[in-house]
Amino acid sequence: MIPCSRCRAPLTGDVFSAEGLTPCPSCGVPMRGEAFPALLRPLELPRPEDLKAFENEAGCFHHPHKKAVAICGTCGRFICQLCDIELNGGHICPACLTAGKQKHKIPALENHRILYDSAALAVALIPLIIFWLTIITAPIAIFMVFKYWNAPMSIIPRTKIRFVLAFLVAFLEIAAWTALLIGLIW
Amino acid sequence: MKKDGRTYRKLPGKKRHFFGFSRAWTGPDHLLAVNNHAYSESYRRFFFKDIQAITAHKTSAGKVRNILLGLLALLCLFGAWAIQDGARHVLLVLAAGSLLLLFYNVFKGPTCKTAVHTAVQSETLASLNRLKTFSRVMDILRPLIEQAQGRLDTSDLKAYQAGEKAGRIDAETAVASQSSGVFRQSTYSGAAHRIMFGLLVFDGVLTVAQFRISGVTLNIVTTLVALALAAAVITALVKQYGSSLPPGIRKITWGVMAYTIVSFVYGYAMFIAAAVKNPDLASNHWKILETMSHVPFADSPYILSFQVFFSAAAFFLAFFGFLFLRPAARDSMKTIQTRHKPAGDQ
């Protein structure tokens, strides 16, 4: 059942069949929605006889008494319907999935990424509020630019302009400090 | 990374947060919701073959913004009309800016909250916060989802409406699901709202008292009450979320929030005006407070009208707040019956 996102009451088909706004049957908030065939798709439960591996059939690596239905695309082990995870059109076992997620080898499972370019730009720009801090943060910003230049960042399109700007700003800050120190010495 | 980047297409809509924003993208076989937190991003994927429904319900955020921007524009225009010196131009610029934002907000259309529903989760898509944007995005997503799942027949939808087909529910589960489900909201009786309206009455009384009595003590007490009111209104807003309080009380609470904001802005403007008129006292806040406390209302129609407005607004909001709160306080727990009849009644 699809719940109303405001009051959590189940929605009726009126919400999905109407062209304009329809009030929620419970809280009355005007809303509209679109439903798709997945809503009516029945759950495909395996039959018990399909799960049992007979003597002449390959069994699952993790559940020897269950019939193998696929081969893990990463480790090559036979896996049963319970262990079979469809990912990006292929099959993978839970162990490889866990390992791949921990080692960040499966981009489709990555839910979080650090934006080192934004961080480097912030390290270069924000300390300008208190200028004397930049004598410490400017080298840090340049270090971050070089260290994380090739690090994986956002999975959506993103240029390296922030890294370039961070480098330029930090370079100018260092140049300003150098000029200041030379001026003080001479 | 470049390879990944090329596969994603940006969807209309963007929701800005304090330190980031939310956006939606379409991938080769999924919808990607991206939340940017300034120095990191988090992703949620909704595969097209798994999406059961996408819903959007109207919210009042747009209306509230319209009201606040309109009030701000009116206040600035009134101030520009009342003041004859250089600050007039600043107020006119502020008024123009507020009106521009108001027109922009009206142009963007009503606000909404969008959710994507799959078999295991219902997640909000923060970037689709306007009904117009929702329509545009659905025009893009619909063919992609239909390509993965096919099109839903109206006959199937009618069957779903009748409750005969209900996704993964078989006959036994259908009976079990037709028991009277209850959705309990929070058991909040309105105590925070009573305190808030009480403070509002007190604030109104103090504002009226300022017509007759002038002094630093009264000014300080009024300020403290205003601070307590601000805390009370924030508490009330938090408490009313998910509670069974009627919409009237909720709207009045938001009205009290607007009143509090306007009164703080007015107080701050008065402070700045006093500092500008007495530049030698600008660094001594106590002296400025004393100066403000002894401003005769009758000499300035601008100040007089604001004081009348604040006292009237305070009593008006408090009166209707207490009026609507009485029946709501009697029913502190409200149950919402589903459309399904109880299993015993079939």
Query: Strand arrangement, largest sheet of chain A?
Result: 1-2
Radius of gyration of chain A: 28 Å
How much strand of chain A? 5-15%
Distance between termini of chain B?
58 Å
Name the quaternary structure.
heterodimer
Report the sheet with the most strands of chain A, covering strand number, pairing sense and barrel closure: 2 strands, antiparallel
Class from helix and strand fractions of chain A: alpha+beta
Distance between the termini of chain A: 78 Å
Helix count of chain A? 6
Average predicted local confidence, pLDDT of chain B: 81
Return Rg of chain B in Å.
27 Å
| Largest pleated sheet of chain B | 5 strands, antiparallel
Instruction: Estimate the mean pLDDT confidence of chain A.
Output: 86
Helical fraction of chain B equals 55-70%
* Major protein interface: A-B, 54 and 67 residues
Record field, number of beta strands of chain B: 10
Order of helices and strands of chain B: HEEEEEEHHEEHHHEHHHHHE
The count of β-strands of chain A is 7
Question: Given the helix and strand composition of chain B, which structural class is it?
Answer: alpha+beta
Give the helix proportion of chain A (percent range).
Answer: 25-40%
Low-pLDDT ranges of chain B = 1-5, 164-185, 332-346
